[in-house]
Design a protein that fits this description.
- By secondary structure, the protein is an alpha/beta fold.
- The chain is built from three helices and eight strands.
- Strands 1, 2, 3, 6, 7 and 8 form a six-stranded mixed beta sheet that branches.
- The chain is globular, with a radius of gyration of 16 Å.
- The model is unreliable at 1-23 (pLDDT under 50).
């Protein structure tokens, strides 16, 4: 079922209504962190205290609708503890930031041989535009976002809190 203006998929982000989705899936690995940072050539490009580290990848058929759908799920996912110690609060509820790091290796295909294939990942131009769109939408929705540097060799440091690590892809919510 496709979303309509009257029935957006999740409703918390503007611009989801009426978007068309495809069979590809934008992917994200979420890590609940006490802190995380990214450096490129000994230069820090982004850092957060408590929040989410989002490793984000795009496939060739992904669109801005996939970015919006995935962001909506990530922002509202209740994976932070409430006063009773239950995972009952979202990133938005806590008011905490996210650190977004592009990662084409989420599309590694290791079924043949010993060297992964990355043909399932979007080309760099498309991937950059989708990662940038995800970041733009997150900031426009009021979230604080720090970033890595697209295409760079990055050093990512984190303290995984819990640990809580979750795999998401935009296909999980496209068909109802």
């Amino acid at each position: 079922m496709q979303p309509t203006a009257a029935d957006p998929p999740h409703g918390s982000l503007p611009g989801l209504a009426g978007m068309r989705y495809n069979s590809a899936a934008m992917r994200a690995i979420l890590q609940r962190v006490g802190r995380a940072r990214v450096t490129v050539e000994n230069r820090q490009t982004g850092a957060i205290g408590p929040g989410l580290l989002v490793l984000l990848g795009a496939a060739p058929q992904d669109t801005s609708a996939d970015a919006a759908l995935l962001l909506d799920r990530i922002a509202g996912l209740r994976i932070f503890e409430d006063g009773q110690g239950k995972m009952n609060l979202s990133l938005r509820d806590k008011g905490w930031p996210m650190l977004v790091v592009s990662q084409f290796t989420l599309y590694a295909d290791c079924r043949k041989g010993r060297r992964p294939s990355f043909t399932g990942a979007a080309a760099p131009g498309l991937a950059r535009s989708l990662v940038d769109e995800f970041i733009r939408l997150a900031r426009a929705s009021g979230l604080t976002v720090e970033t890595g540097e697209f295409g760079a060799s990055m050093m990512v440091e984190l303290i995984n809190q819990g640990p809580v690590t979750i795999w998401l892809d935009s296909n999980d919510w496209k068909n109802g």
